[in-house]
């Protein structure tokens, strides 16, 4: 069977990938930003710092670190240091999720066009994707920052599908966050839930929402061929 027929058989012509926690093994850096920042400065963080900062914005977190750890820097200088640390992580450290390249190669062979929809800055993820060899599989990068709406809105998925030239019902959306998965599903996309050890706490919700739940990316090929 030719590539085009394989894709048509499954009713799938396009795929939209989240990056953090789906193609990139990057969620851990977001969960322990404060810890990483303090340790880099030779300061031992108190237990539970990650949980305290989790619900705060970056700006609120910078204020908290200054106050609680008596840092001499201004909140803006602390924020700049954290942002530089995040950039360095994406530019030089982050690795692909296990099976990410193989999944992209498989879909490429099935003539499925692929694109990304991410909440991370374009420059960060572009550098990361280029460095780890995933960039060339993807048609384009859409970011919530540039779109102007978070993934609580389906706009980023709709724009990505429009770019691919595919309808929602023939477009897979791979997400590890429950709220984003629900947004994509409600908008008519074929939602695929992806497990990440450092990501979504409600894994049962992810399992129940998507038409497929991937504990490992390598499991997708079996879903396609069945």
UniProtKB/TrEMBL annotation:
It comes from the Bacteria. Pfam families: HAD_2 (PF13419). GO terms for molecular function: phosphatase activity. SUPFAM superfamilies: HAD-like. PANTHER family: 2-DEOXYGLUCOSE-6-PHOSPHATE PHOSPHATASE 2, PSEUDOURIDINE-5'-PHOSPHATASE. NCBIfam families: HAD-SF-IA-v1, HAD-SF-IA-v3. This is Phosphorylated carbohydrates phosphatase TM_1254.
């Amino acid at each position: 069977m030719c590539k085009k027929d394989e894709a048509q058989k499954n009713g799938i012509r396009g795929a939209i990938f989240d990056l953090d926690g789906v193609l990139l093994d990057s969620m851990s850096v977001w969960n322990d930003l404060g810890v990483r920042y303090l340790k880099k400065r030779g300061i031992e963080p108190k237990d539970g710092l990650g949980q305290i900062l989790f619900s705060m914005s970056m700006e609120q977190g910078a204020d908290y670190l200054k106050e609680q750890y008596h840092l001499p820097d201004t909140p803006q200088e602390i924020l700049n240091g954290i942002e530089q640390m995040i950039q360095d992580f994406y530019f030089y450290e982050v690795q692909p999720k296990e099976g990410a390249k193989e999944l992209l190669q498989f879909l490429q062979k099935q003539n499925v066009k692929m694109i990304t929809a991410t909440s991370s800055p374009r420059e960060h993820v572009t550098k990361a994707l280029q460095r780890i060899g995933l960039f060339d599989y993807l048609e384009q990068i859409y970011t919530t920052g540039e779109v102007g709406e978070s993934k609580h809105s389906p706009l980023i998925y709709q724009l990505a599908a429009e770019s691919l030239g595919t309808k929602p019902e023939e477009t897979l959306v791979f997400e590890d966050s429950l709220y984003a998965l629900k947004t994509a599903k409600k908008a008519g996309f074929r939602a695929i839930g992806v497990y990440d050890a450092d990501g979504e706490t409600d894994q049962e919700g992810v399992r129940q929402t998507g038409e497929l739940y991937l504990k490992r990316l390598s499991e997708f090929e079996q879903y396609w061929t069945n």
